[in-house]
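Today's session is about reading a structure prediction critically. Students often jump straight to the picture, but the first step is always the sequence itself: look for stretches that repeat, for charged clusters, for runs of hydrophobic residues. Only then move on to the predicted structure, which in these notes is written as discrete structure tokens rather than atom positions. Here is the chain we will use throughout the hour.
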Amino acid sequence: MAQLWGGRFTKETDKLVYAFNASISFDKKLYKQDIRGSKAHARMLARQGIITGQEEALIQNGLDSILEDIEEGRIEITEEYEDIHSFVEANLIDRIGDPGKKLHTGRSRNDQVALDMRLYTRDEILETRGLVYDLLSTLHGLMEDHINTCMPGFTHLQKAQPITLAHHLGAYFEMFKRDLLRLDDIYDRMNYCPLGAGALAGTTYPLDREFTATQLGFTGPTLNSMDSVSDRDYLIEYLAAASTIMMHLSRFCEEIIIWNSNEYRYIEIDDSYSTGSSIMPQKKNPDIAELIRGKTGRVYGALMSLLTTMKGIPLAYNKDMQEDKEEAFDAMDTVKGCIRLFDGMIGTVKFNKDIMAASAVKGFTNATDAADYLVLKGVPFRDAHGIIGRLVLYCIDKDCSIDDLSIDELKGICDKFDEDVYDAISLKTCVEKRLTIGAPGSGAMKDEIARGRDFLEQKRK
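Below is the predicted structure for this chain, in token form.
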């Protein structure tokens, strides 16, 4: 059992205690971040005269060789080590001898792991952000393609008013746009370096924390050594943002599942993103959408787990905080995989435009426009609302749409109807006359798409 401590102890750690205490099985994912942080720390130690230039060169070369050997598969990170920090340090000492023992000067595993996790989370934010950006680009392209694809808009899963597919997709574009902005915001707020905080009270060595922070790409050093090692709010924020992304994906997947059903037939999911049944040969199942919907709970669980872990911890570091990693790592991989798969699925979906348009016509989505027509003819809105309600009942009895009624039938219900009503309540008119900011009319949608294009250009990295 390779440990970085032991001088104080006269007995071997019980094997079960050691296994329970060890984190190497999951924090080995941090090897790149641990080596990167160690290299910056060694550079700073030499700059401050705490170690010699020759010692720093040996340390740097040793760390580089460890990284290369890990990535080339020449050495394995095994569970004989307590954590990734002891693995790296023990291997460094084996390679370069006593100079390797000086690497830990002026730091603690507390600020070391705080740094590693912050570096790892920062990388994950950037990777997640890139995937959200790609999804936004896909949605934006679909919006451009479907400005004139009419469909029903829904409330309570009932047909409400006519919209376009571009407008519907645009709602999700706005959601994922906010998700991207949240990730940017979290990145900016968390981008401060805890290295040099020590166990909780800094150190008597003349460390240059600003130099180390700059070397690692941080905005600056953290400003309270106790806070530096004892909070994971940046990780909680990332998991909250990831949970919101998953919620948006899950809602979209729910609609994909509904639209893919035999009853709706609005879309056909590409074969490459569908699966079949082992017994029913006719089935084409939306399993990817269902799995993304299901995995949302998994990401929520990671957020709730870390919130619960952190809620009762006094200052400063406590071992409970080792529990920040396993579920967070799983959530990070899950959200990235789900975004990537959803992007591929939505980008290859076939939209059945004729079925969507017919569904809007048959669902009385122009009922509000018919009421507005009567209002323009001088009928008070509340009376117009009641008249159109009776008209809808009449159509239900006849199993037809409002557009199918003759002018005599319409006048039989209200004498304010005239021939111009058919144009006023046509699907095209109902959509096109909605031109306020954020509405589905083609003019408003073109403006929205232009704003989306500007956003993507501004946020391109």
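Discussion point for the tutorial: The mean pLDDT is 94.
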